[in-house]
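ok, trying the design again with the full structure, not the truncated one.
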C-alpha cells in the first residue's frame, strides 16, 4: 500500500539556524503519529513542509504519492495550524460554511460541527470564543474537506483539561475510521495516550521513531548514580563507554549514567572503577526519559 505520506531527507535552514536536518519519516495509512519534541525542535517547520507551506532546502515530501501542493489542492489534507487567525465577526457555522465553499466535496456543515464538537456554539461569533473553543473551531475547519490525512500542530495548546478530553474523544472517532493523523505536541501523555507511534525530534533531527511502547523501552532505561573517587578529566568519557551506558554525566565526582542495560553497566563500572561508592540504580519514567532524550547532550550520545 502507498504511504499516507513520506518525508525524505528534509532539510530547512533559516539563515544560520538549521531548523530541520535530514528528517525522513514514512507513515502508512491509518497510523496516528505524534511528533514530539521541545520548543525549537523543528516540529512546526517539518509540518509546514509536509503541508507545502514551506519549501525544503533539500529532500522530498510525498502525500499519497503526490506533491504536498497537489495533495492540498485536492483536499486530501486537513490542517490545523498553531495560531491560524479566525474571522472574528463570523459565527462558527458561517466560518465552517465559508471553508466548505472552498472544497470540492465538503462534508455537510452540521456533520462537521458535530464531529468537531462545536455544535453548541455554532451561532457564536469566533471573536467571542475562548482560546480552547477557538482551537476546536480550527479543528472543525481541518475536517471540512473530509481529508484522508489530518495534520495538527499542537492542537490542544490552549485547551483546559476538559477541552483536551473532549477534543481527543472527537479525534478518536475520526481515527477509528482509518484516517491518518500527524499531530505535534509537547505533551508526552498525549503522545502515549493517543498515538500509535512517536517520532521524537530534537535540534531538527529525529532522535527516536517507533511504536509508543518501543520508544519508551528504548529510552526509559535506568539511571545509575555513583561517587567516583579521584575522578579526572577523562573519567566522564571513560564512563560513557562502559557497556550498557548510553550517556554519562560527571559533576564533582558524582556520576550519573543513563543505562540501556544497568546490569552490564554496574559490572563494567566496578571492573573499571573498583572504588566507585554509594551506588544507586533507579528506573526512569517516560517523562524523565523524554527530558534526557531531548536535553542538550552531545549529538549521537542517545542514538
Ligand atoms: N521563519 C523562521 N525564521 C527564522 N527562524 C525560524 C523560522 N521558523 C522557525 N525558525 C527556527 O527554527 C527552529 C525550529 O523551529 P520550529 O518552530 O520548527 O520548532 P518547534 O519544534 O515547532 O517548536 P515549538 O514547539 O516551540 O513550536 C527554531 O530554532 C526556530 O527559531
Amino acid at each position: 500500500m502507498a504511504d499516507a505520506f513520506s518525508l525524505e531527507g528534509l532539510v530547512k535552514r533559516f539563515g544560520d539556524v538549521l531548523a530541520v536536518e535530514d528528517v525522513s519519516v514514512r507513515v502508512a495509512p491509518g497510523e496516528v503519529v505524534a511528533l514530539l519534541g521541545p520548543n525549537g525542535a523543528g516540529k512546526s517547520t517539518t509540518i509546514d513542509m509536509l503541508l507545502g507551506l514551506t519549501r525544503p532546502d533539500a529532500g522530498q515530501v510525498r502525500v499519497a504519492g503526490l506533491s504536498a501542493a497537489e495533495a492540498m489542492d485536492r483536499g486530501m489534507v486537513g490542517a490545523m495550524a498553531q495560531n491560524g487567525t479566525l474571522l472574528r465577526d463570523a459565527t462558527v457555522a458561517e466560518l465552517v460554511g465559508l471553508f466548505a465553499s472552498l472544497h470540492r466535496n465538503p462534508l455537510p456543515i452540521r456533520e462537521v460541527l458535530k464531529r468537531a464538537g462545536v455544535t453548541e456554539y455554532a451561532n457564536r461569533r469566533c471573536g467571542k470564543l475562548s482560546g480552547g473553543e477557538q482551537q476546536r473551531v480550527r479543528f472543525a475547519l481541518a475536517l471540512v474537506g473530509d481529508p484522508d490525512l489530518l495534520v495538527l500542530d499542537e492542537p490542544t495548546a490552549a485547551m483546559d483539561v476538559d477541552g483536551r478530553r473532549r477534543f481527543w474523544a472527537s479525534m478518536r472517532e475520526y481515527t477509528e475510521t482509518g484516517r491518518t493523523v500527524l499531530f505535534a505536541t509537547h505533551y508526552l501523555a498525549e503522545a502515549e495516550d493517543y498515538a500509535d507511534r512517536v517520532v521524537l525530534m530534537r535540534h531538527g533531527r529525529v532522535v527516536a521513531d517507533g511504536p509508543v511502547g518501543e520508544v519508551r523501552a528504548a529510552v526509559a532505561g535506568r539511571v545509575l548514580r555513583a561517587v567516583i573517587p579521584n575522578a579526572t578529566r577523562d573519567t566522564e568519557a571513560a564512563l560513557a563507554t562502559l557497556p550498557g551506558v548510553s550517556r554519562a554525566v560527571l559533576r564533582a565526582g558524582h556520576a550519573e549514567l543513563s543505562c540501556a542495560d544497568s546490569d552490564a553497566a554496574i559490572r563494567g563500572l566496578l571492573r573499571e572503577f573498583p572504588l566507585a561508592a554509594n551506588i544507586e540504580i533507579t528506573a526512569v519514567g517516560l517523562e524523565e526519559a523524554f527530558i534526557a532524550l531531548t536535553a542538550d547532550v552531545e549529538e549521537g550520545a542517545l542514538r
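Keeping the full-length input from now on. The two ends are 29 Å apart (CA to CA).
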